[in-house]
Amino acid sequence: MSPKSSHEVPVARRSRKLCLVVGGTRGIGRALVHGLLADSGVERVIATGRGEPGAATAGNDDQPVSGRAQTWRLDITDDHDLGRLAQRLADIGRPPDLVIHAAGVLHDGLLQPEKSLAQCERAHLMRSFEVNSLGPLLVARAVAPLLDRKRAFTFVGLSAMVGSIGDNRLGGWYGYRASKAALNQFIRTLANEWAGRLPRAIALALHPGTTDTALSRPFQSGVSPDKLYSPDRSATRILRVIDGLRQNDSGRFLNWDGREIPW
């Protein structure tokens, strides 16, 4: 990250009383919820999930997690759900200070990472883009009308190193790579728009590192143990990066250790 001047306060530390974690019922998202709840300055955390069997939201809407947290049903591919999210946030009476978009898809039933061009299928590619690219952008659209240009706000989309075009030396994984690259472009474009309209807002793409979750589990055989991180460890590092953000970090693509990743 760029050096900080002595008088500048990191944006996210000014306030993160109300936090929204999209995809906060599983994996890294759930660990992020727990990490935020460990911060006494956080007053409320809203975790969203699709309500799949086994998720924290299954069978309930507004299920309390603790006195300071609850879960909401949200399917990021459903425009009705996104509209409802916007309304429910508006009903709270204040905008969120921090939104972390941790929902994503790498494999799902017949959807699997492609090893070659011959395995690319239209429906599977569209599914990757719908969840990994359009989902975060449309969550940002749902939240944006609530934001005040005088208040600090941070939007973090969890991206992936494989979404870096400059770092792509192996090929394969067409849909996942391209959908994360599209997410990065969306966030960079959003940051440019917000720079004028919401000058205290940050939009950031962040790579959490390879984390031991259901998303990565089928593909961990080639990952050395020292490069495979627990959800809690990844969440801790993500929140550390967020804590250190400055306004000029908006529109960047950062690694879990704060280093910049090539587009």
From TrEMBL:
Example GO molecular function: oxidoreductase activity
Record InterPro entries: Fungal_SecMetab_SDRs (IPR051468), KR_dom (IPR057326), NAD(P)-bd_dom_sf (IPR036291), SDR_fam (IPR002347)
GO cellular component, one term: cytoplasm
Entry-linked Pfam families: adh_short (PF00106)
SMART domains documented for this protein: PKS_KR (SM00822)
PANTHER family membership: NAD(P)-BINDING ROSSMANN-FOLD SUPERFAMILY PROTEIN, SHORT-CHAIN DEHYDROGENASE/REDUCTASE
Protein family per UniProt: Belongs to the short-chain dehydrogenases/reductases (SDR) family.
Name of protein: SDR family NAD(P)-dependent oxidoreductase
Species whose genome carries this gene: Elongatibacter sediminis
